[in-house]
Amino acid sequence: MKPAELLRARVHALWQKKGPVSAALLPFAWITGLVVRRRKRRALAQPAPPSALPTVVVGNLVVGGTGKTPVVIAIAHKLRALGWTPGIVSRGYGAQQGSDPRTGQGPLDAAEFGDEPALIARATGAPVAVHPQRSRARQALVQRFPDVDVVISDDGLQHLALSRDVEIVVQDARGIGNGRLLPAGPLREPAAKLAEVDFIVDNGAPFSEGPAAGHAADGVSFDNGRIDGGGQAVETSRPRRGRPERIGMRLRPTSAEHLSSGVRVAWPDWVARHRNTPMAAVAAIGQPARFFDTLRGAGLRLERALALPDHDAYEQTPFTALNQALIAITAKDAVKCGRFADPRVWVVHVEASFSDPSWLDRLAKLLGDAAAQRH
């Protein structure tokens, strides 16, 4: 693990408890809270202009990846299967940002659109628009692709300039950490936000023993509009629908793709073929340990695990420094590594599996109701 990634892992570990370091940073967290409250009051006083299209935002409360992208992909697939024509908007983190939004469809250049939008575009075939101001991205998306009738925002929960009809929070095993705001904790906004959203998706939650739908997040309990561990819920211009519904999610490997040739092999067959092969793995994602644990859990012989900074641009190949016979990477890394002609590299593709798949139908109904109200 590189020094920057080691430091990041230690910071996330510190944020899981209320120790002396966190306490020392509380004055700065209060400033964060003040900024968040001012933004919400401003948004309530001057609501974001409504869009002609229903919009769902998929975001998180904590810093770092929680598994939003697979949820976005699953939603896009479901909506298309139900007859919708979804489009995606994103900030395009890591891309070479210009003054105007970028739009595209199909295989996109990660350097221009960002790795996550490029991955979503390839996985779903949906049109994509990127810009730090997601409302401008949505406007550009509609202008370029007039057939789009529903918008999915990849991240943007805190981007209040983007009007939305449905909000989804994706959490992982960290939950809300120590419940404190940045930099004393991992939260971008108070945990009270969990009381306002429509769905909470728990990445990694065990299905057989996961919490029932409508229960609060770990360390947090709903009680008459209040939520312990993050302060009082703030009013919002978006209509409330009662308690959030909570869904368990696991990321299940489905296949491995040879990066150079594009040949795909079903995951069980690929694991059986390479179970005893010395292997390395490289990941530039929010939580690389999850990827490495997936490989180890499959019984693969993982000798080297190289964690790179999230959204790393892969300006130089990291593969030449690895001497293992096989190298596994994630699909998010693959959109940036196509130019590296290393025959050892395989891409592990995953898909989201939910404790209650019918939640996507209920999501679609909320969007359909929102669309009907516009006519």
Summarize the structure in short.
This protein is an alpha/beta fold. It has helices at residues 3-14, 20-24, 26-45, 68-81, 110-113, 115-124, 134-144, 267-274, 288-297, 331-337, 359-373, and strands at residues 55-59, 86-90, 102-104, 128-130, 150-154, 166-171, 199-203, 222-223, 226-227, 245-258, 264-266, 279-283, 302-307, 326-330, 345-354.
State the helix count: 11
Q: Please count the beta strands (DSSP E, at least 2 residues each).
A: 15
Instruction: Quote the CATH topology of the largest domain.
Output: Rossmann fold
Strand fraction band?
Answer: 15-25%
Q: Main sheet, how many strands, which sense, barrel?
A: 13 strands, mixed
What's the CATH first level of the largest domain? Alpha Beta
Distance between the termini: 54 Å
Under the CATH scheme, the architecture of the largest domain is 3-Layer(aba) Sandwich
Question: Mean pLDDT, nearest integer?
Answer: 90
Total discrete domains: 2
Structure description:
- This protein has helices at 3-14, 20-24, 26-45, 68-81, 110-113, 115-124, 134-144, 267-274, 288-297, 331-337, 359-373, and strands at residues 55-59, 86-90, 102-104, 128-130, 150-154, 166-171, 199-203, 222-223, 226-227, 245-258, 264-266, 279-283, 302-307, 326-330, 345-354.
- The chain is an alpha/beta fold and 375 residues long.
- It folds into 2 domains: 3-46 and 53-249 and 355-373, Rossmann fold (3-Layer(aba) Sandwich); 251-353.
- The strands form 2 sheets. Strands 1, 2, 3, 4, 5, 6, 7, 10, 11, 12, 13, 14 and 15 form a 13-stranded mixed β-sheet that branches. Strands 8-9 form a two-stranded antiparallel ribbon.
- Helix 4 runs parallel beside helix 6 and helix 6 (115-124) crosses helix 10 (331-337).
- The protein is globular and about 60 Å long.
- The model is unreliable at 209-234 (pLDDT under 50).
